[in-house]
Fold these 3 entries.
Entry 1:
Amino acid sequence: MKIIKVRDYEAMSKKAAVIVSSQINMKNDCVLGLATGDTPLGMYKELIKMYKEEIIDFKEVTTFNLDEYYGISGENEQSYKYYMDKNFFNHINIKPENTHIPNGMAEDIEEEARRYDSLIQGMGDIDLQILGIGRNGHIGFNEPDVKFEACTHLVDLDDETIEANSRFFDDIEDVPKKAISMGIKNIMHADKIILIASGIEKADVIKETIEGSISPNVPASVLQLHPNTIFILDEAAASKLN
Ligand code: F6R
């Protein structure tokens, strides 16, 4: 595991975008695993800039998002599908059919989870997975007490996650209580992983993830077992590390 400490959010975003762009330039038909939330927004902006400057080309790239809310359609402004189109896909030349997000409206959610897993496996797994981290240590929506062996599945969101996500909704009651998420097994099968974190509110969980014991109570701690993970942390997020 490699740790890169940078000054601030902007530097973290640029560093992550440079690594993603190298991946695309080394393998133009690569498979990227993508995250939503606040943390990757700056990285997406940088990647859009690099695309406009013709430094990278997304024509052959395939993406798989980590997760989607359960019971919310892609047209809903709160959905992760909407987020990805608005903040990234609409601004680059990726083929829509090459972008994958779990369908939170699927009638048979277990079947949808199996479909998603087999799509990922059919592409030969993920070349580079981008992760954010929840204050409770979740990656994707793999909440504490996670089963490390799980693939894509329906999850009950923690109260802490629901509260954290309520900033995107008018009312906390509107925040979905469930999501469909890639499992730890999908994530651990990625060839390379970048976890990005910024801000003092992530400092405790970053310390537990990197220096604590590997435990389902801190899902991200499993990354200690991954042979090719880079943490890109700004000063505040890294401030409690030894
Ligand atoms: C979202 C995801 C989540 C977020 C995490 C941090 O696709 O996978 O694990 O990365 O909740 O969210 P932010 O970046 O908003 O702090």
Entry 2:
Amino acid sequence: MVKPVIAIVGRPNVGKSTIFNRIVGERISIVEDIPGVTRDRIYSSGEWLNHDFNIIDTGGIDIGDEPFLEQIRQQAEVAIDEADVIIFLTNGREGVTAADEEVAKILYKTKKPIILAVNKIDNPEMRDMIYDFYALGFGEPIPISGSHGLGLGDLLDAAAKHFPKGGEAEYDEDVIKFSLIGRPNVGKSSLVNAILREDRVIVSNIAGTTRDAIDSPYTYEGQEYVIIDTAGIRKKGKVYESTEKYSVLRALRAIERSDVVLVVINAEEGIIEQDKKIAGYAHEAGRAVVIVVNKWDAIEKDEKTMKEFEQKIRDHFLFLDYAPIVFLSAKTKKRIHTLLPVINLASENHSMRVETSVLNDIIMDAVAMNPTPTDKGKRLKIYYATQVAVKPPTFVIFVNEPELLHFSYERFLENRIRDAFGFEGTPIKIYARERK
Ligand code: GDP
Ligand code: GDP
């Protein structure tokens, strides 16, 4: 299912990030725990009256050294390119400014629905301040207050009216959708070309997807695949394309549409912080993950090199211990053929369902081997476990008190489940739920 996308645009200080945070709420993310990553989320999911959507804070896209007006123009362009509905945010306390008019000028060019919101209307007496904003030409302005959380329901109602209808899946359930993510120049486009040129690959016409994404559907040995368009592969030559935030945004959107994410690393350069951050996004999204070390032709090797590189990856990506690693070269095509079987395996495991009785045998054996932890004199009791979802496999364990299931014991159970069922390539989720 493809979620609709809302983008917030507007000049600095009108309250874009305040509104964004209000709408998405607080969420703990591993990516933000990685050192060197600031609290700079600009893309997240939200929910309003049974509508799931994604939202972009375009204010967080920093376009290098461009002058102020050019920055906000570019941000409005991103909104036009990426969103289904645009929220044009202004500041009621300051009235219409020249910068608001600049944003409006860019937005006139699109047919996409635009909702004009006037922020910082912190109490009903201030409502009169919205009338100036009719002059921007986007119809009735909606008064809101980000800091007081007022009017956000009306705002989201207005946005939801414009969400695209339908909501059916883009591709059939049994098509394997995968994307390649990684820093610029790791070889993503070369790899896509190498995969598509493999013998017997039949590339079908590009499907008319809702968002004119540049996906590459193909069939190999009877299995249908779609390579999902990714930042850095689609090269349109727009100014904002080369900014880091925009490439993260594109990567997140590709991840979301994928079953399997290939995290591509450049063997020549080794692993850097940004690789970890990118890999973190794939893990958090609950997608199957394969680590691809590209440019394996370009380095000096002996019989230990691969093992050493693998260890380095394991040390850096602790949270991706389930991800298989493939070493290859897009340039020489060496070992390219090893990739698809691994993608197939990861995809299969991502949607694997296990039998409840077998699962419970495994859990009970685990508990017999390593007794459940105690806390303040209370012992965790596990009654029963069941798999509640696939993609990724998700388990609920019914216990006496969920807080007693500490991270380390959960990790132990996860490892037992993995040993028993072999969920290679996919994250699995475990939730504890109380049962009296
Ligand atoms: P952005 O640059 O558009 O992302 O704006 P921010 O979200 O960073 O907000 C700019 C400033 O306006 C901050 O100091 C916020 O606390 C303040 N602000 C945001 N929303 C409101 C509001 O509804 N009322 C008032 N009075 N201040 C607000
Ligand atoms: P992207 O930005 O991740 O899509 O990377 P590209 O596919 O554009 O590749 C970046 C550069 O790396 C190009 O000059 C490629 O020719 C080169 N390259 C890609 N794959 C390989 C490889 O396997 N080995 C070597 N030696 N160079 C490669």
Entry 3:
Amino acid sequence: MTRLASSTLTMVPPEARTPCYDRAQPCGVLHLGTGAFHRAHQATYFDALLSAGHNGWMICGASLRSPAVSRQMNPQDGLFTVLIRDGGEEQVEIVGSVAEVMVAPENPSALVSALAHSDVALVTLTVTEKGYCLDPATGALNLDDEGVAGDIADIASPQTAPGFLVAGLAARKAAGIAPFTVLSCDNLPDNGKRTREAVLTLARAVDPALATWIEDEVAFPCSMVDRIVPATTEEDLDNFESATGLRDEALVKTEPFTQWVVEDDFCNRRPPLDEVGVQMTNDVASWELVKLRLLNGAHSALAYLGGLAGHHYVHQAMAAPGFSRLVEALWDEAEATLKPIDGFDAKNYRAQLAQRFTNSALEHRTHQIAMDGSQKIPQRWLNTIRAYREADRGVPKALVMALAGWMHWQAGKNDAGETHIVDDPLAARTAAALREAAGDRMREVANLLGISAIFGEALPADNAFVQHLTEAYCSIGETSAADAVATFAVP
Ligand code: CS2
């Protein structure tokens, strides 16, 4: 087996784009969470930047959990393939912007030293929603989280993303090195603000003077990221190997669409990302809401209802009876809660989303999107429902149906009675809520709504909402998710 690496780059098919720049240059970026999304998104923008001759913007990657990514990438000198798929078409790019990947748990202080290196001007993060250790309902740092408590007890050996940021910034302050900019690239509303709050809360708990310095000196711009990146399968790796003779364990597959909107607020050198298609703006929040409520909101609805109905992939769910009608209704509800943005055309955006969701070449698994729902649904659905209710528009039926789907998903069984794992940090809580209700559907709904870390206090007290939700939940229970969606009547 021949691995993709600098020495085997010549074996890559001639039509593939390969790095045309000297890769032996400083890492201006340190990235936390070098998973598939980072590789198909931010790493491709930095690859374009380096290709355009902007030196010093290689990425030093870090995995905060498993060593798997380093085993995939380090033997390949950080190189990896991006397959861009659209229906029957495929484009191949070899990306060279990642220099190496460190494994934080193996040597936390090595990562802290890397964060303190003066070449690093920017720290980017894709650690998923749960990686910030926030309370999903309030967005504040969860001080009861084990990792956070560990960081407070021993910040020299951090475990969490906020912990590494605090330790890295502390090391820079101590060495008299200017701080890096912290750029969150996760699907959270106000991701920069939330990251800042989390870092400040943690810093206050370990060293108040450091917290003041961070408050005064460090920029935490918000950003909106968008590209659909399904998890790579063994089959993808095997197919690439049989076509090229090269094994690429770090290969990622994605769609042609990509978008990155970044708030123009940097405290250290700013990479000229605007030259490679990044939208620099001062109104990221509006873009973020559009993306979370329309794209991610619909994605999660397709994941739970589609997953319950037995659809493995998003494009299959989109083609099943009633699903695209439900998605359109969900978009109507979500759109009603958004304020207009200059240069944003909701009709085109929705049409483009519908097309992206039907890209069958992506094979985007509903179960992948269903992961970590407790961390996702507050910003994807619940804030939308609240805004809709506050504007006196009645009860948003499609969002409520989606939420009823999420509730059924927690039982770990689909319409056909096949079991699935509820992959979620709060899975034990949702399971206990269902168990306690002993099969009484009204109580199941009430118990799940009682998990305030997800639902807060106001929504569970909203009677009209609870009544509609209970009806939707019962209708799925009495028939099936497939039927409930097929017969979903657009109000
Ligand atoms: C998806 C996202 O897995 C999920 O929750 O909704 O990863 C989605 O594909 C991206 O946000 C698209 O930009």
